[in-house]
């Protein structure tokens, strides 16, 4: 069993949970994830390791409660426990000193971006972090990202915080300015956002990395659930990723696979309310 040390509501449906998992905390690298199961028979949920404290033996998970299983996980209070925390899984992020780096996060993708920003800052990069969401209620981790970033820019679609629009707006401005153009871009968020970022950087030939979020089941490369097309080759996000060269990703195929179970999810929502 893995004890829940704390459980905090960060934004609507978004929880920050600190879990006691000493071996994972010692071994994890930026970009890796765990698969969490609340109890035997429950769904296995892949979650990026947002942060870790090797000394305290804890990991931090940012969990968006959007389905029945994630809602049950975030309902576990401090003092409670999760049955399984398997990991760390996936490849670690390739961290180098590129110089100027743009890190772009959309919605809950900002939580996945956080450990990357931390590692990139630690490697001496000068980071412009751009985070966005539908409204101010969906902007997360701004206080944590600000000290790691040379500049932190916020966008909201309804203009309730930062500039009005999408995260691609400030990125486009950076790319147009030779004094500010980044040498590398990291983007995590909804598929259309990551695709838009890839299309913006492609003509400039700027190295661009995205973290993909396909359906995952076993997390060990056995089930094939997380397969994605990268440069025409089939890859498994759980063992070959989850990060890939954005210019090689088949984002349309990923969208199709992510929507495979929409009908079943809608039917369950209608029947159970979650
Ligand atoms: Fe099964 Fe990746 S989750 S192969």
Features of the shown structure:
9 helices; binds FE2/S2 (inorganic) cluster; Elongation Factor Tu (Ef-tu), domain 3; seven-stranded mixed beta sheet; Rossmann fold; alpha/beta; 33% strand; 274 residues; globular
Written overview of the protein:
The chain is an alpha/beta fold. The chain folds into 2 domains: 2-89, Translation factors (Elongation Factor Tu (Ef-tu), domain 3); 100-258, Rossmann fold, CATH 3.40.50. Helix content is 27%, strand content 33%. The protein has 9 helices and 16 strands. Strands 6-1-2-5-4-3-7 form a 7-stranded antiparallel sheet, with helices on both faces. It has a 7-stranded mixed sheet with strand order 11-10-9-8-12-13-16, with helices on both faces. The chain is globular and about 55 Å long. The mean pLDDT is 91. The structure holds FE2/S2 (inorganic) cluster. FE2/S2 (inorganic) cluster binds at residues 216-219, 221-226, 236, 238. FE2/S2 (inorganic) cluster is lined by residues 216-219, 221-226, 236, 238.
Number of helices: 9
The 3D shape can be described as globular
Bound molecules: FE2/S2 (inorganic) cluster
- Biggest sheet descriptor: 7 strands, antiparallel
Main β-sheet, spatial strand arrangement = 6-1-2-5-4-3-7
Mean pLDDT: 91
Task: Give the name of the CATH superfamily of the largest domain.
Answer: Nucleotide-binding domain of ferredoxin-NADP reductase (FNR) module
User: Proportion of β residues?
Assistant: 25-35%
Sketch the topology as an H/E string, one letter per element: EEHEEEHEEEHEHEEHEHEEEHEHH
End-to-end distance, in Å? 26 Å
In CATH, the architecture of the largest domain is 3-Layer(aba) Sandwich
Q: Structural class of the secondary structure composition? A: alpha/beta
Low-confidence stretches: none
Total domain units? 2
Query: What's the CATH first level of the largest domain?
Result: Alpha Beta
Specify Rg, calculated over alpha carbons. 18 Å
Q: How many E strands? A: 16
CATH topology title of the largest domain:
Rossmann fold
Q: Roughly what percent helix?
A: 25-40%
């Amino acid at each position: 069993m893995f004890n829940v040390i704390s459980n905090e509501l960060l934004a609507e449906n978004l929880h920050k949970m600190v879990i006691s998992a000493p071996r994972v905390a010692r071994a994890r690298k930026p970009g890796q994830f765990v698969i969490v199961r609340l109890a035997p028979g429950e769904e296995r949920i892949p979650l990026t390791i947002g942060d870790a404290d090797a000394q305290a033996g804890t990991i931090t998970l940012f969990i968006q409660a959007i389905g029945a299983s994630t809602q049950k996980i975030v309902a576990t209070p401090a003092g409670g426990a999760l049955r399984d925390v398997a990991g760390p899984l996936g490849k670690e992020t390739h961290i180098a000193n590129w110089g100027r780096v743009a890190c772009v996060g959309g919605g809950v993708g900002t939580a996945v971006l956080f450990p990357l920003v931390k590692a990139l800052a630690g490697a001496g990069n000068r980071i412009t972090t751009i985070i966005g969401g539908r409204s101010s209620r969906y902007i997360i981790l701004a206080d944590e990202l600000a000290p790691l970033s040379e500049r932190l820019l916020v966008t909201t679609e309804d203009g309730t915080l930062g500039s009005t629009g999408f995260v691609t707006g400030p990125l486009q401005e950076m790319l147009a300015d030779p004094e500010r153009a980044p040498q590398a871009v990291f983007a995590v968020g909804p598929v259309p956002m990551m695709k838009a970022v890839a299309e913006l950087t492609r003509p400039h030939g700027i190295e661009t990395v995205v973290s993909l979020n396909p359906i995952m089941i076993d997390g060990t490369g056995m089930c094939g659930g997380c397969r994605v097309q990268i440069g025409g080759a089939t890859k498994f996000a759980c063992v070959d990723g989850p990060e890939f060269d954005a210019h090689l990703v088949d984002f349309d195929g990923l969208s199709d696979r992510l929507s495979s179970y929409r009908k079943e999810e809608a039917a369950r929502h209608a029947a159970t309310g979650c």
